[in-house]
Model the fold of this input.
Amino acid sequence: MGAEMCIRDSAWVKLCMKSDQTNNKEICLTNHEGLEPNTGMVLIAAAVRKVEGEEKQQLLVRVPTAYALVIPAGVQIKIDDEQPIQLQYTICFPTSCQVQLELTKELFDSMRKGKQMVVAAMNIQQKTMGFPVPLTGFGKAYDGAPVDSAKYEESRRQLMEMFRKRQAELAAKAAEAQQKKEAQQTGDPTAAAAAPAGTATSSAAQKKPAVPATP
Done:
């Protein structure tokens, strides 16, 4: 399956890399990103990290700081109707906070069999925010071959460009609506549109030579 199809049709994508930076060990991330449908902002990211030659795996979860999260409260991870797991943030960046934990066999099996994982965090208003992570397709992506990283990044770049264009269109529509509203408040719906034309006419009149008075 191509990278573009993976972005569109699957909640999970498997990406692998092997280089000098990884000590020539293959590192694979079976990754999910939940995007805000209008802006493309990453609302929730979850990934299972597996390193070649190591039995232990890690679960990485990242939530945005745009919601003014309470850092000491940490997060709760809950799969379907199972008991939630309370975790503390491992590290925070300007735009997100990350949780990292060893992926036990029980948790891994729950992810493979489960339908949804919910990551709950508390904001500064003391309200709990739930970030859903669909688990459909996780097992298939984990067991399958990795996607082409270059093609995936290109597809993701195109997706982000689509979001940028959508934001520009929404901003243009909002500006047009505001202009119409202001025109209606002045009692002249055509005022905004007529203003530039009126200015041009006035300028033309100023440039027109004066007709000499009849003696």
Summary: The domain at 3-163 is CATH 2.60.40.1880 (Immunoglobulin-like).
